[in-house]
Amino acid sequence: MNKQILVTGGTGFIGSHTVVELQNNGYDVVIVDNLSNSKVEVLDQIKEITGIRPKFEQFDLTDKQKVKEFFKKYSDIEAIIHFAASKAVGESVGKPLMYYNNNLSSLMNIMESMIDCEVSNLVFSSSCTVYGQPDKLPVTEQTPRKEAESPYGNTKVICEDIIRDTIKAYPSLKGIALRYFNPIGAHATAKIGELPLGVPNNLIPFLTQTVAGIRPELSVFGDDYNTEDGSAVRDYIHVVDLAKAHVVAIERLLTGKNKRNCEYFNIGTGNGVSVLEIIKSFERATGEKVPHKIVARRAGDIEKIYADTSFANEELGWKAQSTLDETLLSAWKWQLRIAKM
Ligand code: UFG
User: Fold this and answer.
1) What are the residue boundaries of the NAD(P)-binding domain, all occurrences included (predicted)?
2) Substitution site in 160, 194, 201, 203 for ligand 1 pocket (most atoms within 8 Å of beta carbon)
3) For range 199-215, the mean pLDDT
4) What does 90-156 look like in DSSP terms, one character per residue?
């Protein structure tokens, strides 16, 4: 029988791509999502890609009773990938309690049920935001975490600590926190991708909407950073490469290859890329022009971050495969597809 994996937030951007990769690797998936930031039609799209419609339960993971009932109903879950969370940095500044309540209580409810129902394996979606602006680049998993810049970022730090402390107290539990750098792009079929609500905050959806004529021009936030061309530097990773990292993390836990009960991995490409380089790469890959202007820095932005991925490369046997041009082309194909939706 196939192993059953619970994917919380499985209709979301990273979640849906991960469900596809899990199903392609022979896992049975059950998704829990409250659809607060995603659409139920994603299930049909996943079926179009993989031939299998994942099981789906719609409820809010902050509801402890519902979480308990879920684990009673699905008693053969072997591992959990926990994506479900609120993720807008700016919004979290105005609504800290909503962010702490949502992101912390859903994790705690899941971990309580893991203990009660003897589910041992957890993969958690963490973020490079836990490093803040690091003193030294690239960042390794040993780079000290810094005080978070936003309540959202702080929920990632606290969730990592909740997992660490709970695993310490219950040694039958095992966890892997994947610290994502900047996930972008979309599935090669253009059937799933990122669906931002309203005006996008993130660079790539804003850029593709600009090229599609939905926004007049892209604002490049700052050209006076201490970087080669003055614009800020990030490590942009194709969402399918990121999704594949979850499959190897699950396999590591299920086969007992983990070296510690609680492990952390940087999931990026290892390449630092500036905003202006993103524009150039997009134009090269798609043949489209990106209307843009330089404006002031965005409050709260860091100057530069990129990953040292050698630990993930060696320990997980995983490495990002896609080039930046391929990744940006996939984002553009997705934008063209959603224009028709
Ligand atoms: N940027 C622009 N113009 C825009 C949008 C973004 O120039 O319209 C720039 C930003 O200033 C930044 C870069 O593009 O330099 C990337 O910005 P994003 O908003 O796409 O991503 P961030 O690096 O700010 O944030 C991402 C995730 C967060 C996570 C953070 C961790 O979206 O969830 O990485 O560092 F917390």
Assistant:
1) 6-327
2) 203
3) 97
4) HHHHH-HHHHHHHHHHHHHHHHHHHHHHT--EEEEEEEGGGG-S-SSSSBPTTSPP---SSHHHHHH
Q: Whose CA is nearest to atom 20 of ligand 1?
A: 202
- Determine if the pTM surpasses 0.90: yes
Ligand 1 in reach of 290 Cβ (< 6 A) = no
Measure the CA–CA gap between 162 and 108, rounded to whole angstroms.
8
**Which is more confidently placed, 198 or 314?**
314
The protein residue whose alpha carbon is closest to atom 5 in ligand 1 is 203
Angle between helices 13-24 and 42-50 (to 10 degrees): 30
Whether 74 is a known active-site residue: answer no
Residue 13 tokens, joined: 């951007």
Partner residues linked to 263 by β-bridges: 176
User: What pLDDT digit, counting tens, does each position of 152-201 carry?
Assistant: 999 999 999 999 999 999 999 999 999 999 999 999 999 999 998 889 99
Average pLDDT in the chain? 97
Residue 30 near residue 54, CB atoms below 8 Å: yes
d(CA 12, CA 101): 19
Of the residues 99, 131, 152, 264, which is catalytic?
152
Instruction: Report CA(203)–ligand 1 centroid distance (Å).
Output: 6
